[in-house]
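P.,

For your records, the input lines for the assembly:
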Amino acid sequence: MVHANSFPKASDGYFMIESIHDPIEVITMFGNGKMRPIRFRWKNKIVKVAKVTGDWVRHEGQNKIHYFALLADSSDYYEICYNAKDMTWQLTRVWMEG
Amino acid sequence: MRVVLHLDMDSFFASVEEKLNPCLKGKPILVGGTERRGVVASANYAARPFGIHAGMPMAEAKRLCPHAVFVEGNPQKYVHTSLQFLDVLKSFTPAVEPFSIDEAFLDLTQVPYPGRPSPQRAVKRRVGLTATIGIAPNKYIAKMASGVQKPRGLTVLTLERYRERFWERGVQELWGIGEKTKEALAKLGIRTIGQLAKFPREFLTYHFGLNGERMQEAALGRDENPVIPYYEGVPVKSMGHEVTLSEDVSDRDALKAQLLRLSDMVGRRLRADGYLGRIISVKIRDSKFRTTIRQRALPEVVDDEHEVFHTAALLLEEHWDGRPLRLIGVSVSGLVSAAGHYQHSLFGQDEHRRKLLEAVDSLRDRFGEHSLVKAGVLR
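Structure tokens returned:
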């Protein structure tokens, strides 16, 4: 049951892209001045990247955080980011069908 | 005759989300604030048959279309895509004026057009998003033309066609005329754009001042404003920030803490972009959506958030009757370039304050906006 004023959650049966801030490990390919995530590990699950559908950058002072929108082999959608300052990767959003 | 093109990206934020996540294709998508009081910033065309439109509270949109996909807005993502489509437009002419994150004007008067792909097609091919285009002899008619047929529309209007198409329509269809102005015009017996165009100008000026003249020029389809190329920069008229509060607030100190945070953001932007401003405005909206805007002119131009906050807090004290507020905002207008304005205060207290602000700005430039926060905001 969803409270009238609350925002819908996937668990309530609504479609929603969930915001997550989990650390992940990423295998990345560097070339032509760009980086491209190939696969990543999230909660002991390996996700193989089928397609990078977009990328963008967020500035935090002089630091840059690089974001990637990804489609997995499973057709699930992920957004991950690389923090250049501390060289860490994070899963920020996920959309899973079904 | 000039040839001006107005390009408006179709349901921009929602389309960006759909492009990045092809799983969303065909589904109703709502982009906006996902907190309880958030509003819809963008809804794609699959969501519109449900009566959903931008500006609607998310809770209402959820009620109208519970199976829609809700996506929290991400400004960096949209700015990145906006720069991409502007790059495409610059390949047609350097006379590109970015008008908002998802709109731009192009002056194509000097551009040999036949044989070239349309900007619409070029944006679709290179950015993967659709846009609607209006082409006309000036910016105002071009903007009106792009609103005729959406999405993926292309409308060409001459001055005569503009008058044929719009003069029978209600004044609220004019770009820039809202509900209050519509009501004020109705009191003068003006209901259609044609009536506004033919109304004696002196009466309009008497009732609406300079704005009356501007409204009539719009109704007539006259606009001499040039397309200002992106490299010249459009003069900034004001800078402001506002926030929809997560719940209605009637606590004075909590509202002042919000004013302090917003003033801090405004001051930071003024200094970063090299502006000073003289007019401080406060905007408040109560739980019944009644909006009040009050402003005060300072004796001198400022870019210090302390001055902005001091005046904003006074305006709040004077014009807020204690009713719970759902939105509060601060803006500074009457802007002038900051160049040369600091010379009069090279010594004394002003100089100490200036050095402090420079140090704070320098730290934030290096470590991010949240690296330093005013204690008064933390409540």
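Two observations worth noting. Chain A touches chain B through 29 residues (CB under 8 Å). The longest strand of chain A covers residues 45-60.

Regards
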